[in-house]
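Pilot study result, target chain (279 residues):
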Amino acid sequence: MLIDSHAHLDNARYSEDRAAMLTRAWEAGVRTILAIGIGEQAAGMDGALAICREFNPQSAQGGRFPRLYASAGVYPHNTPEADDAVLAKLDALLAEPEVIACGEIGLDYYHEGAAHAVQREGLIKQLEIAAARKRPILIHCRGTNEGTDAFDDLLVILQEHWRPAGLGGVMHCFGAGLEQAERSLDLGFLISFAGNVTYPKAQNLRDVAARLPVDAILVETDAPWLCPAPDRGKRNEPAFVARTAAMLAGLHGVEPEEIASATTKNFRRLFGLGADVGN
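Predicted structure:
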């Protein structure tokens, strides 16, 4: 059974068929999904928690839906919105039992958006809140023109402001090199791979994935984006995380069930969840 470690279930592209989409995930063997709470704007970061509270009671009563957890965080480009009220809302959300992670947070130098200094400041403030609430973090990181400049800045910040917390986290939708992956592992992070690892031109990413131990990886969709091959460009959904798991299995020369089992155990370990999660 699989865990989709990163999906934007509150996205408007699911507004017409969210229940059916979750049923398809269940039928594909996905038993747990981490719903990402960033919203379209920072003030909407509670959307993932609302989805959890809508569907988890139905799942507990025998509905064919995966068990849902939530995160909350301010996306890099929304960090100019991270005023005292938004940060207080983040702190309150991280106190909720269903909200097991802070994120996705981080740095994005690729798209035009918030000034880099503002992103760095917003990230550090959220790290402080997450540390106080003892929540692992979900990192988004993308450099300019596929460079490592954002990752270089990120790792310096995490070394100073996050490593002492000892809480670790997830490098979501990893897209850097082996050096950055190994430095992330040293900081206590898991490396999560999304559907883009299946794309024909992503051989460098597949090379990284093949070099990492299976006890250091997760699988995700980043749905509704990054639909795996051969349906790239279409709306993604959690059921398709099985394709990413199958790709990783091939890279490691094991059966998909072994990747499913390993990534489920990794998820439980990071978030301190029981053996029932993911089954």
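One observation from the pilot: The mean pLDDT is 96. A full batch analysis is planned for the follow-on phase.
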